[in-house]
Design a protein that fits this description.
The structure is a single chain. It is built from twelve helices and no strands. The protein is mainly alpha-helical and 278 residues long. Helix 4 packs parallel to helix 8, helix 9 (168-178) packs antiparallel against helix 10 (182-213) and helix 10 runs antiparallel to helix 11 (217-236). It is globular. The mean pLDDT is 81.
Length: 278
C-alpha cells in the first residue's frame, strides 16, 4: 500500500513506475536490509528516531485539516455515533463490526496477537511489568489517538462517499482538500510507517525463525534475505491480496496467544500487585 501511494503521489506522470511498484519495493528492501543486518540494536536506534518523527508529521498535518474544518467536528462525531448505534447499523452491521472491526483493530495495533512482546522481551529491566505498561500505551496512541483523528478527517471531508477510492487514497484525498501538496506529506508519513513496521516485524520473524531452525548466523541471514525478497513481492501485489493474507495470519497468531494469556493471567495479576505495592 505504501509503494502504491508513493507511486501515485510522486510518480503520477510515470506509467512505468505506476505499473511496476516493485521498483519502490526494491528500494524499501535495500533500506530495510541495511538496518536489520545490524540486529535489534540497529533497529532500536532507527526506530527511536523514526517513529516519533513520522507520528509527529502525520498528527501535525491531521490537526491542520481538522482546524480548517473545525465547524464540522460536532457533525462528524454525531455521524460516527449515529452510524454505529442506528437501528439499521445494529441490525445489519453486527457481523461486519465483529469481522472487519476486529481485523482492522488487530492490524492497527497488534493487541492480543503476541508480536509486540518479542520486542519488549529484548529490553533489559528489573521490572518486567513496566514493559506491560508501555505495551498498554501503544494501542492507545496509534488507535485511540491517530486512528480517531484519521476518522474525523475522512468524515469531515466526506471523501468516503461518491468515489471509487479505498485504503490510504481516501485519506490522501481528504488531505488534498485543504492544501494541494498535503498528499506529499501523507505519502512520506505512510512510507515511514511502512518502513518502521517492516523493521519491527523483521525482528519478530527473525526471533521466531531462529527458534524453529536454530540461532546460527546462516539461519539469521537467510531469514533476512527472504524477508527482503517478500518486501519486493508485496509491493507488486494488489492491496486486497495482501490484506486478506495478513488477516488470516494475524487470526492464526491470536488464537494460541489469547489462550496463553488466560493460562498466565493469575501469575500476571500476582506480579502486578507486587509491582504496584513496591
Amino acid at each position: 500500500q505504501a509503494a502504491s501511494q508513493v507511486s501515485d503521489v510522486f510518480f503520477n506522470n510515470n506509467s512505468y513506475i505506476q505499473s511496476n511498484t516493485w521498483i519502490i519495493g526494491l528500494f524499501m528492501a535495500i533500506a530495510v536490509g541495511v538496518v536489520i543486518i545490524g540486529g535489534i540494536t540497529a533497529i532500536g536506534r532507527v526506530a527511536e528516531i523514526l517513529v516519533p518523527f513520522m507520528c509527529g508529521i502525520y498528527m501535525i498535518a491531521g490537526f491542520v485539516i481538522i482546524f480548517f474544518h473545525y465547524k464540522y467536528i460536532p457533525q462528524a462525531i454525531f455521524s460516527i455515533l449515529d452510524g454505529a448505534v442506528s437501528p439499521d447499523s445494529i441490525k445489519g452491521g453486527i457481523a461486519g463490526v465483529i469481522l472487519q472491526g476486529f481485523q482492522r483493530a488487530s492490524f492497527s495495533n497488534e493487541a492480543g496477537i503476541g508480536s509486540a512482546p518479542i520486542a519488549h522481551a529484548a529490553v533489559k529491566t528489573n521490572e518486567p511489568i513496566t514493559q506491560g505498561m508501555v505495551g498498554l500505551l501503544e494501542p492507545f496512541i496509534d488507535t485511540v489517538v491517530v486512528c480517531t483523528m484519521t476518522a474525523l478527517i475522512i468524515v469531515i471531508s466526506k471523501t468516503y462517499t461518491g468515489n471509487d477510492l479505498n485504503g490510504i487514497a481516501i485519506t490522501s484525498a481528504a488531505f488534498a482538500q485543504v492544501i494541494s501538496w498535503f498528499p506529499y506529506v501523507l505519502a512520506i508519513a505512510v512510507l515511514l510507517f511502512a518502513y518502521a513496521t517492516m523493521l519491527s516485524w523483521s525482528y519478530y520473524g527473525s526471533k521466531s525463525w531462529n527458534y524453529l531452525f536454530g540461532a546460527s548466523k546462516f539461519s539469521d541471514l537467510s531469514f533476512k534475505f527472504i524477508f527482503c525478497c517478500f518486501t519486493i513481492i508485496g509491493s507488486s501485489m494488489t492491496l486486497d491480496n495482501v490484506v486478506v493474507f495478513s488477516d488470516a495470519m494475524i487470526f492464526a497468531m491470536a488464537i494460541p496467544n489469547i489462550v496463553g494469556l488466560y493460562v498466565m493471567a493469575n501469575e500476571i495479576k500476582v506480579d502486578l500487585k507486587a509491582y504496584l505495592k513496591r
